[in-house]
Every structure is written in structure tokens, then in C-alpha cells.
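Exercise 7.
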Amino acid sequence: MLIHIDGSAVADAIAGNERSHGSIENLLLAHHGGVHIVSFDLRDAESMRAVDWSPRARRVLNRFIEEHYAQIAGLRSDVAWHLELGLGPDFDGKARSLPDGRSAIRASLHDFESLDAVARSILLGENKTDAELFELLGLMRRAMRGWEHLDMLCTLRGGGGSQLGREFAALPSRGTIVLAVADSDKRHRDGGHGESYHGLEKEAAKRPAYQRARLLPRRTAEAVVPLSVYREVFGAKNGDHRVRAVERLEVLVSSASGECIQYAHLKQGITLYQVEHPRTADEGIYWRDVAQKAERDRCTKPENKCVKRDECKCFVVDKLGDGALVDVIAWMKTVPREKDLAKRFNFAEDHDLRALADEVLSWGLALRPVRT
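Solution. The predicted structure, written as C-alpha cells, is:
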């Protein structure tokens, strides 16, 4: 992440405050190791040359002044999210919207006084596969922005679905930079969000905003992947039965509504039994309308009417199965140009997906490690 150190923190370190000096030293070492990007106003950086730093920290400081200032200052004015560390009541751990639509998080410098805290940002998903997908979205966004000369590094973790909030709560409450993304679990246009996100959001509200809870703009991660990508991946395997499921999903979208994919459970599918026995009346109204428009509102075996959910094989939304996303991610890693992937994912047209990718990129942004 790009971390700007405010003049209030610099002045305190120069005045001899050991906590401030140690925190800035830790951050300079994180920059040296290629974990985060540290930024100063140029005058502040110049004034810190008079302070005693470790050889590696001083090397970062000198390079910032002599080589990197213009580049990092430009990034700070362009990256979607960045962190500002200082001292005083303004550095309250909250995020602020900037006039140009970007966001800045202001927090206490002393959150980073432990060297252990200054590690790679954590990217937390409901499972490791989801986190891998989000990381690839960030890399695609990096390519779109022409920032391939920068690293994007995160430690990927999976929270176990409903245990996501608990996994988040187990992280240190200060210093660790984390972006946690929860499925919306939204079952129809006017539906509410699921318990995973509510639990995560409740825990994040107690913490500084650089430990952020982020809602996925889809019911599940499988719906992030365009149907055209599933077709390309499955079509490369001779005889993959999932190609037929994708074809039926494409017909569903064209005959009913493209937005219904956002609320579909692509891994397990949605059966006619589920449409006829919904959790809520509004859910039933939404999916009955979809089923009718797609002409999937009648049982194919009315003489053997299903009495249990698991018995129903009449799919309104066809299922792609448990391994679909794993297969897509494996294929994505073989595509040589991330810009080509970004085109396949329609980044230019999908604002919600682009915003998520911008956040992942912001949390993982780093310069290459200092080698000398």
C-alpha cells in the first residue's frame, strides 16, 4: 500500500520521540523489502537526513529524495486508496473521500511501532480460491493502468465462509493492513446481504479503515467471471459437460435479464423447486419472473413431483459445479498478458468490478525491493 507519512509524525521523530522514530524506521524497512511504498513531502524527507537511521532505512530515504520522489508523488495523486500516517486527532483511523473520487485513510503512526506489524497486506476471502481470484483482478487493473513496473503483493487467506468475521477478528487490531471481501449472498435485486458480510462489517467497524471489510458486488465469486470466459475455459477441454450448462446460462441471460447472474448461485444452480419454495416472498417473485421469461417455470416430470429440494433436476439456473472457479483461475494464470484478461472481464464497462480491482491493487501496491 502507498503509505504517506505526515509532517506531524516526522517532526515528532526529529524531536526525539522513540515511538515515532521506531515506527518510521519500520516503514522504511518495509519499503526497502518491497512490501509497501513509503511517501513523504520532500521537505520532510530532507529534514530526516539529520536523524540516525539504520543503513537500510537511510538507503530508502536517500533514494526517495534523489530518485523516487516524483514517481511516488505521482502515484499518491493517482492511486484509488492510500494511507496517511500522522499524530493528532485528525489521524483517527477513518477513511475520507477526496474531491476527485479517490479515498485516503488517516491513522496513527504509532499503529506501526511493531516491526512484525509491517508485513504484506492480507487479502482475505471466504476461501483461498476467492482470494486468488481477487488478486488476479488487482493484477488486471495494474496492467490496465500501465503500472507493470510496480509490484502488487498480498498474503492470501481464506476465512471459511461463515467464519470470515472470526478470521478477521483474529488479526491484530493495529498495524496489520487487510482487505477482506465477503460474498454479498444477495438472492435477488431487493434482497439483503448475508450473515458473512454482516459479521465481517461488525468487526471491521471497531478497527481502523486500513483493515477494511469489502462487499463483493455478486452473490458469490463465481458470478464475477463472465460466461464467455467459462465457455472459453470449458471449451478447451474435449467433452466437458459444463459447456452445455454455460450455453443454457447464456440463453437465460438473453431471455430473462443479464442482472440475474449477479444473484444466482452458479456453483450449485437454482432449481424450480427452490423457486417454488423460496426463503422469502420477494425472492420467489423475482425468480418466478426469471423462470417464466426463460420458459423454465414448468416441471419436466410433473408425474413425479419433487417433494424435496435435492430431488429436483429442473434447473432455472444451471450449476457449474464445485471446481469451476478453480479451473478458471488455473487457466487465467496461463494467459500471458493481464491486459488481455481485463478485456475478457469487461473492466471498461463494469464499474463495480473495476472499483473492487482498484481496492485490491491499492492494498497490495509496492515498489520492487531495494537491492543495494
